[in-house]
Predict the 3D structure of the following.
Amino acid sequence: MRPIQLTSNGLRFVALELGGGSKTALLLHGFPDNAKSLLPLATILAERGFRCVVPYMRGYAPTERPRQTVTSVATLAADVVGLAAVISRAPVYLIGHDWGAVAAYAASKLSPEHYAAVCAMSVPPIPAIAENLPRDPTQLSRSNYIGLFQLPQVPERMIKANDMAFIERLWRRWSPTWEIDEERLADVKSTLAQPGVLRSALGYYRSITRGVGGADYRLSARLLLSPSSAPTQILGGQMDGCMGAELYRGAERFVHNLSDVHILPEVGHFLPLEATDAVAQRIVSFFEQVDAD
C-alpha cells in the first residue's frame, strides 16, 4: 500500500494505492467511514490484477480541507471524474459504498466515458428509493438521522460526545449481525475527530436542503434522478439498518445497463468489511463479464 497525492476539481486528495495491474479500480468510501475500510476489498482486487486507488473523500483528512463545508452531489461527481482522469487514461472500474455509491452513480452520468463499469454498494438508485419509500414506512425511522444532520452545530456536539458514541450506535444499528471491528471503528472516529472533518462530512447531507433552485442544486438533482447507462452492478445487505432491502425494487428502471441487483443474506450496511470475500468475488465476476462483452 502506497499513499499518493492527486489533484482533482481544485482540491488535493490523499489516496491509498495498491497493486500494479493494467486495469485501474477507483474505490470510494462513505459515512461514517474512511478510505481504510475499503482496503480489504482493494487487497483482493489487487491480487486479481487491478491497480486500486482508494481516496479519502472530499472533507476527510488527510485530503485537503475544502473551503466550502457543504458538498453537493455535483461537486462529488466532479471530484470523481477528475480523479478518474488523473489516475488512468483508460476507463476505470468505479466502486462506491454509501456516499461513495451516490458519488459513483452521479459521476457515471456526468462523464460516462471515464468508466468501464460501476459497482454501487449499500445505496440503491435514488429514484428507486423515492418510489419505494411509501411502501416501506419503516425507512423513515431508519433515515431520521438525515433530518437531525440538517440542524446547525447540534449534530456536531452530539456526535463528538462520549467518544463519538453516536457513530458506534450507527455502526451497530446499520450492521446489527456484524461483530464490529473495534480497531476499524476507532480509526474512523479518529478521522472524524480531525479539525473540520465532521462538519465537512455532515455537509454532504446538508446539501440536500441548501441552495435549492440554484444551478449546482439543479445539476445535482439531475445527476441523482436521471437514468444511468453505464454497466452497473448493485449490491446490498439483507440486514442493512440504514437502507432497507425493499428500496432496491425496480432498480432496473433507473439503470439501463444493469447487470444485477444482489442482496447478500445476513449482511448489514458495511458490505466491504462484513462480507469482503463474497463482495470481491461478485465484483470481479461482474468486471470480467463487462470485459468479455
Notes: The chain has one domain: 2-292. Residues 2-292 form a domain with the Rossmann fold fold (CATH 3.40.50.1820). The mean pLDDT is 97.
